[in-house]
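User: Okay, second chain of the day. Same drill as before: sequence in, structure tokens out.
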Amino acid sequence: MVPVAVGTACAVGEVPGGLIWWRAAAALVVALAIQVATNYANDYSDGIRGTDTDERRVGPVRLVGQGLAAPTAVKRAAIGAFAVAAVAGLALAIAVGPELLVVGAVSFLAGWFYTGGPRPYGYAGLGEAFVFVFFGVVATAGSTYVQTGRLIGLALGASVPVGLLATALLVVNNLRDIPGDTAVGKRTLAVRLGDARTRVLYVTLLVGAFLAVPLVAGLGGRPLGALALLAVLLARPPVLHVLQGARGAALVPVLAATGRVQLAFGALLTAGLALS
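Assistant: Same drill. Structure tokens below.
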């Protein structure tokens, strides 16, 4: 939701006649459906590989790994969610341009091969890079593009803090899972960096997102975008928990708190950019 809202706000004042709201709604459907599809695909792929069993799982419940649903049913759910994204994306491509078909296809592949296929990139420590690109740059700048038909500097700049916070969610998730991932040979970035450096990375991503706000708001000519800095009040608890060494199940609330930081940051940045 956050990258679509922020990207749409970047288009305010850039579209003759005002925003085209159905395009914003379609972009939101695409983003949410790809997120849902990726989670189902991740559940399916991890489940059939045996990397999410009851003995190893620390985080929220998984369908296949914990025997709550058949692998084929979860796979169908992933394909169904991708299909929803495809329908909304096709409508945007017809209205905006065929280049969106390429962006959509690459996004689908990134969602499936995160943990799927013979060489999943999520198992090679590249998950964070892909999250930054697709849930930061692509989703934010793409939401502006479907309104304006062009890339603009403000949207690219705003995609940086949005991407950093999205990446922080994955980092704390993988920090929690270091012991289990290590045991099954899942070489996430957190496993490669180790516990201590992963904690530093998490804090760096949050700090970087807030440091980027004055640059985006100031250089972009949207001063009220600085409202996003107020979300720092919500960032203190998860940062302290991570720095104080929270582990395992104690990191699940940190994951939720990081999501709240991202949501508040996105809502405030969206409002500030639009009002400016």
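Residues 2-275 form one domain.

User: Thanks, on to the next one.
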